[in-house]
Amino acid sequence: MSWKRENRKGVTFIELLTVVVIIGLLSVFALPRMARNKEKASIATMESDLRNLATAEESYYYNNSIYTIDQIALNITLSAGNTLVINEATPAGWSATISHTPAVTQNCYLFHGSATPVGSSTTEGVIDCS
Fold first, then answer.
1. pLDDT given at position 57
2. pTM
């Protein structure tokens, strides 16, 4: 009996199984990387919102000679998913914390002037995420 492959159409089960295994292995390596990229993007939006807050606080201070915790008065718009808390605002400085839920477990912190540093922030005007 001879096996002729003349009229063979389609793929064998082994070929299909091999392709599925290769795709599975590729996804095992790709999914964690995509999750890290999503987290990095969320942290970037938090940092951007804190920079926007710093600009808004300085503008408010220029007009009123005091910093504020009133986000409506600052007229800032946060990125989707970000939650901002202005911890302290005095004539001498301000501090803020921002978080992004549920994608990121880290918070970002920023303080200015003589405000009490928050979170892991230790240098005035430098955003720190931890």
1. 96
2. 0.76
